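With this grant's support, we have paired protein sequences with backbone structure tokens. One protein thus recorded is set out beneath this paragraph:

_____
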Amino acid sequence: MHVSRQYCVEPNTVECVRIFAADGQSSVVYPELPYRTETVSVDEITRGIGIDESADRIASMLTRMCLKSVALDDGQRISVEVYRSRSLLRRWSYC
């Protein structure tokens, strides 16, 4: 049996839990999976995947992959909003 089916109300999802401190009053919600912004070079991307595309085109493709992206003014870098569950992305590591 798949673990998420056994322990989650909705299969294949992440459920949040509230952890209370020993004082019984303060608490924190886990998992903490915040979004963060990464800046990556167009050269690094094109070398890594073997295509020759502009920063605007790469940003557009990343946005289509649900990674909000914009080409920066210099045309050599891209700003990407990444969430932790995108483990398939090298170097980039919801409740």
In short: The helical segments are 3-7, 42-49, 55-64. The domain at 35-83 is CATH 3.30.56.10 (Phenylalanyl-tRNA Synthetase; Chain B, domain 1). Strands lie at 17-20, 27-30, 35-41, 69-71, 77-83.
